[in-house]
Task: structure prediction
Amino acid sequence: MGPRKTTTRERLITTAAELFWRQGYTQTGVNEIIQEAGATSGSFYHFFPAKEDLLLAVIAHMSERLQAEVFEGPDDDDPIERLFSILSAYRRHLAANDFVFGSPLASLAAEVSENHPQARARLTEVVEGWVSQFEDLLAEAGPRLPADTERGTLARFVVSAMEGAVLQARVRRSVGPFDASVAQLRTHFDLLQDHVELPEPTRLPARPTPSRETRVGDWKAW
Result:
């Protein structure tokens, strides 16, 4: 069987996602999207009565891709290692473009969040979904983290480190800042695990010492 043919709606969404990511939502016109997608204006407005409707579809598309390629890819049994495997998958996803364009959803959030409340609400849901998935992994880690660890806050810290690392990598045009941030995050997790209070080991009762008066041959007294 050959590859599945994409529908006109899918082509419009994927084309818009690429253009929004590379040059921004505002700088991308509807006519440019139609031309790049090989569509017609009639088909565009049939699927998307307004440009913002396309924006919402693009956010959903990007979110689904990141979920499939980044969050659902790693399958480590260890929950903490799975967390770092997600970060590695995110790094690979972004390094494919040499970090020139940064995080696709972060770029949209910076541009449209103030003037497009529906898009901002959807982007908020996506980010909160990431936080929730990291929090689930931290909960799965159980007693490996200190009992007083606020896992929701720690999960939000992981997302902040992840997205902040992408911003620095984009500015520097280098993967170095991303790797340095992840390494520091690893150190933080190692320190947390080092501070876990282990239960006191069970002490076995001391074996009674035979009396000096016991004769060596009297084995019943031992």
Notes: DSSP finds nine helices and no strands in the chain.
